[in-house]
Amino acid sequence: MRHLTKALGGTAMMLALAAPAMAQAQGSEASPGDEIVVTAQKRTQSLIDVAQSVSVVSEATLEAQGATGFVDYLKNVPSLQLVQGTPGQGRLVLRGINTGGVASTVAVYLDETPFGSSTGLANGSELAGDFDSFDIARIEVLRGPQGTLYGASSLGGLLKFVTNAPSTAGFEAKALGGAEFTDGGDASYRGAAMVNVPLGETLAFRASGSYRKQGGYIDSVGTAGSNLRSNINDFENYGGRASLLWEPVSGTKVRLSALFQNLYVDAPSIVEADAATLKPLYDGLTQSEYIPTFSDVKYRLYNATIDHDFGGVTLTSATSYSQQLQSFRADYTANLSAVLGGPYVYFDQQTENRKWTQELRLASNGGDFIEWLVGGYYTHEKGRIFQNLKTAVPGTPGVLTPIDLPFELAVFNLDSRYEEVAGFANATLHLAPWFDIDLGGRYSHNSQRAAQVTDGILLGTAVIDGLHSSDNVFTWSVAPKVKFGRQASLYARVAKGYRPGGPNVIPIGSPPGTPTTFDPDTVTSYEIGFKGDTDDRSASIEAAIYHIDWTNIQLAAVVNGFGVNVNGASAKVDGAEIAATLRPVAGLTASISFAYNDARLSGDTDPVAVGAVKGDPLPFTPKYAVNANADYQWDLGGDVSASLGASIRSVSRQTGGFDPAYLATFGRFPRIRAHEVIDLRAGLDFGRYAINAYVSNLTNSGGITSTQALLGVAGLPRNPNGALGTGVVRPRTIGVNATVSF
Questions:
Q1: Could you give the C-alpha distances from 120 to 133, 218, 333, 464, 465, in angstroms and in order?
Q2: Are 702 and 732 in contact (CB under 8 A)?
């Protein structure tokens, strides 16, 4: 929508624990002595040996908490924020690296596959891949820039889904069914199943599928006070994964995987609020929907990973193809009906990203003095955004009858291509039994091309081809580590990350000074951290302090009357994270983490397009965030055990999105009040059978998760009565899941 809207309108500290505690705190399988293994540095390592901040959310944690997506495991990952007003349309933020915009700052991986757009031309930041978490072995979250091993768009960090691989050890199956009931909303249902089948001594197959129907809880009021429809923001989320593992000879593994997932949303989870106070209007969770809207998001991903162990080294090839497709309709009646003669005005958009990737790397299998890894990476992406503004009259209920105009109002089509070639290397030098140093570097070259077509009386007819840009970027990391035996380490890490630049989409003959391209932006992070476990791992602690410099920030701006991406201003983040986990007695696990982020601009932005100035907080970054979890499990006799648990996530006041119209009206940006979300859970495990009950958002916190711009297309009010659209935390929900395993 950004393109059409623009065309028509002319060193402090931060606290948080990485994951050893978090992974075990919630998992029923966790016990003193468990060692958490991760692949954060593209080789298998104990978490305590990784010289950077990494959080892990285990499969048992996800299952016990009834988690299905991003919103459900925020309480397990320090410094992770989700800006979201519609399921399937979410922006991930780590350590405050966020100013809005359309290019990602957090990379998303599924096993060996990067997912989502690498560019600023396909809305990658707003469409983070929110994969269903059923039959996921763990989720690894790497906090801080990951440019060396993971490349583009990992300025803030990386979220990596690690799936369960097929196993030849034996037949395995699991089925899950559940229901939820939301305060003031419709009932929700969930079902999932998994099967693992050995097909011989060298071949195994694993598949899983899931379905979720979430009932809505927001009502449509159309014009204020006139109730039209109830619980309009329901959605369906269904899909499946399949994987085949073949080990033809000792040391060789071939894994073929496929995934599909569909998210069909009937209306955004947006509530109209008083623009000054952000309190919901009309005595409830409502929005002024005049026509039915939707957002359909489809994920398709195919991967082939081959590993061959040559003895001293292992060669890995990962080839993948993915698609991320979105189609949505937005209701612009309140915004444009009076201008365009409605009665209904709506906006259709299709966003497409198709991505080929190939990575080839060679890694040593350990080493007394040096462990190393070298590799190459290639990606080729095709992106498309198509937008069409239309008017209609009422037809059959739920159906629009377009007005047959002799002309188009506004049609916009943008096709883009992105190609990147990169080489990278990483080495860990064991200089003494107590001292290591990790070194990494990556050189990347990317090139982009774009073509724009516009039509309609509001945009004019034009074909603009030949838009292009290219970048050459070197990212690096250095991380010395001092080890205190096998259970504790102190590390320092300096690392650089980047986000690609690109071509601007501007008309032919634009005035001199209108930028035709925008450059990459980069971050440099300085971090000192400590990780420690007791000998029996009955207690653990992780802490980090860091400073991040963000330079050449990509911003949306208006130059010579045209909406473009520009580079300008800079920002800094001073923060600290600390978290501790205790297992004082058998069955009891308690953890607490505290995160502090002081994320602010250190320069002024464009006063017309953005309006933010030096010292303004970065959007959706609470200065303080606390996560606390406690779980107790005990035996009831025989094969039966019971468990009780509770979680609280508390975030301080934060600033909403940069919005110059809001700034002009109120002299500030939206102020989002502090809130807490409390969750409870209980379970019974009978061996093959288990049942888990939970309550999410026990106190109906009403926390805000996103803010829309105050004005819509053509600089006119987006909502009636000057309302501001806000995303909200789902109201109190009571749920139960039952599982059976074979």
A1: 27, 32, 28, 18, 17
A2: no
Mean pLDDT of the chain, nearest integer:
88
DSSP-derived 3-state class of residue 284: coil
Residue found under tokens 């991003």: 70
Here the tokens at position 142 are 């790497």
Dihedral sign, CA of 26, 28, 30, 32? positive
Q: Please state the φ and ψ torsions of residue 334, each to the nearest 5 degrees.
A: -65, -30
Amino acid at 720: P
What whole-number distance in Å separates Cα of residue 507 and Cα of residue 618?
31
Please give the DSSP secondary-structure letter assigned to residue 118: S
DSSP 19-86: HHHHHHHH-TT--TT---EE-TTSS-EEGGG-SSEEEEEEHHHHHHTT--SGGGSGGGSTTEEEEEEE
- Token pair for 407: 């002309």
Cα gap 417→420, rounded to integer Å: 10
Decide: helix, strand or coil at residue 148.
Answer: helix
Task: Kindly state the tokens that stand for 676.
Answer: 């807490």
Q: How far is CA 101 from CA 81, 98, 653, 657, in A?
A: 16, 8, 22, 10
Residue 54, CA distances (Å) to 160, 326, 436, 544 in order:
11, 31, 18, 11
pTM for the predicted model, two decimal places: 0.91
Cα–Cα–Cα angle for 376, 380, 386, rounded to 5 degrees: 155
Which residue is associated with the tokens 């079902």?
191
CB 173 within 8 A of CB 741: yes
- Mean pLDDT for the stretch of residues 438-446: 95
CA atoms within 13 A on the CB side of 399: 4
- Residue 294 CA to residue 331 CA, distance in Å, equals 10
Name residue 81's beta-bridge partners. Answer: 93
Strands 219-220 and 554-559 turn out to be unpaired
Distance CA 248, CA 205 (A): 14
Distance CA 335, CA 1 (A): 14
Q: Is the pLDDT of residue 564 over 80?
A: no
Closest listed residue to residue 678, CA positions, set 723, 626, 642: 626
In tens, the pLDDT along 648-685 reads 999 999 999 888 889 999 999 999 999 999 999 999 99
Angle at CA of residue 301, ends 300 and 306, nearest 5°? 165
CA distance 24 to 21: 5
Residue 458 contacts residue 71 (beta carbons within 8 Å): no
CA 154 from chain centre, in angstroms, equals 11
pLDDT above 80: residue 563: no
The bridge status of strand 671-672 relative to strand 675-685 is: unpaired
Q: Measured between alpha carbons, how far is 579 from 25 in angstroms, rounded to an integer? A: 12
- The residue with tokens 């405050």 is 96
Which residues touch 427 (CB under 8 Å, ≥6 apart)? 370, 371, 372, 373, 438, 439, 440
Which tens digit of pLDDT belongs to each residue from 250-278?
Answer: 999 999 999 999 999 999 999 999 999 99
Q: What's 403-459 look like in SS3?
A: CCCCCCCEEEEEEEEEEEEEEEEEEEEEEECCEEEEEEEEEEEEEEEEEEEEECCCC
> Which of 335, 289, 273 is closest to 716 using CA atoms?
335
Q: Which amino acid is at 661?
A: A
Residue-level pLDDT at 405:
67
Q: How many helices (H) and strands (E) does the chain have?
A: 6, 43
Q: Mention every residue, 6+ apart, whose C-beta is less than 8 A from residue 193.
A: 173, 174, 175, 176, 208, 209, 210
| Residue type present at position 286 | T
Find, among 112, 126, 44, the residue nearest to 84 by Cα.
126
- Only one residue has tokens 């300008």, namely 568
